[in-house]
Amino acid sequence: xxxxxxxxxxxxxxxxxxxxxxxxxxxxxxxxxxxxxxxxxxxxxxxxxxxxxxxxxxxxxxxxxxxxxxxxxxxxxxxxxxxxxxxxxxxxxxxxxxxxxxxxxxxxxxxxxxxxxxxxxxxxxxxxxxxxxxxxxxxxxxxxxxxxxxxxxxxxxxxxxxxxxxxxxxxxxxxxxxxxxxxx
Amino acid sequence: xxxxxxxxxxxxxxxxxxxxxxxxxxxxxxxxxxxxxxxxxxxxxxxxxxxxxxxxxxxxxxxxxxxxxxxxxxxxxxxxxxxxxxxxxxxxxxxxxxxxxxxxxxxxxxxxxxxxxxxxxxxxxxxxxxxxxxxxxxxxxxxxxxxxxxxxxxxxxxxxxxxxxxxxxxxxxxxxxxxxxxxxxxxxxxxxxxxxxxxxxxxxxxxxxxxxxxxxxxxxxxxxxxxxxxxxxxxxxxxxxxxxxxxxxxxxxxxxxxxxxxxxxxxxxxxxxxxxxxx
Lengths: 184, 279
What we know:
The complex is a heterodimer. By secondary structure, chain A is of the alpha/beta class. Chain A has helices spanning about 10-15, 35-45, 90-95, 110-115, 130-135, 175-180; strands at about 5, 25-30, 60, 100, 120-125, 135-145, 150-165.
């Protein structure tokens, strides 16, 4: 399995070379965002207002971290299930979002949008929050503090480990993986 | 009448939620090891090794295994010869939850269903009381994450569907859940009673330890059969493909109405967390 190091923000060329199953280590800035933050971003877009974050070339991590202990940049921070953001994801890709990190299956509209707008969906190991937090070196809230764990945070990550689940060609690691090992 | 102080209950509940969230059970770790030894997929084995490493870090740092530290679910069995003194029992439990989630740096995940405003202290807890014989209070704390809970379902089958219909319902549910509930999962199955009773049985089934078979040998056989069939689906750890899709399947069965066959499937992620105390 290929292991690729990538720096954020991502370009079309960065994402177009990725294939399902590739192991990627991300370094740079990523933004957290989950259910309630997505709803707010979407409402801003609908009403033609500016977003609190310029998402062009960026990667959004679907995460609601645990509180940081004193002296730590962040608490446990693994991915949440992604399909709940499906209704909002194609619009964000249209505006330039290049990557999403989460876990779990995406809908067909999201997979199509990844093809059309050149973006990828990365999986991080769900439930490995203590381990993944070690790759997050700094985190600060940049919007929606009132949402608590659902606020948007700017995270500085170093070699954050992810796997490509959906690439820009419409392939799906979940479909291929299950096909290979199915015995029923 | 034996007396138990409300403050003791608060302390026990606080400690149980911190313990459950930071220290994964030996039974679950042993199940990861079995997957590492037997799964055909190299990616699956790597994910399971990561989960073991994650559990080790959480234990060393006393930080939560997963950032989703759950809604606070509790099974509380109160002996009929116990008298709780020094405060309201339910308030004492909720106070323990508040303290545990605050002092343990656990995430507060409870919110209003419509406005989504966070209650900020992870209460109210979901408390299932039972009155039992004896003079003890037994508390089982089950932090329940949202991702796997969302994959759970109840159905009212036709009695003609029978046991085969039940197996079919479970397998279809696990297949449809795919990678969403953070496999390898533990599957709680509640059969019988009424609509709500089946769901409660399914939840209670999840408080068993991995490998702990149903006392009824026939049901024990069915549990093993369903587990094997789930693990032939190919979903694997995190849904990346493999033979370790579930770590165990637990059935809890009670009589039901002559017209009904209620069946509930409660899905639990690999962070199968539950701890108990007896006061």
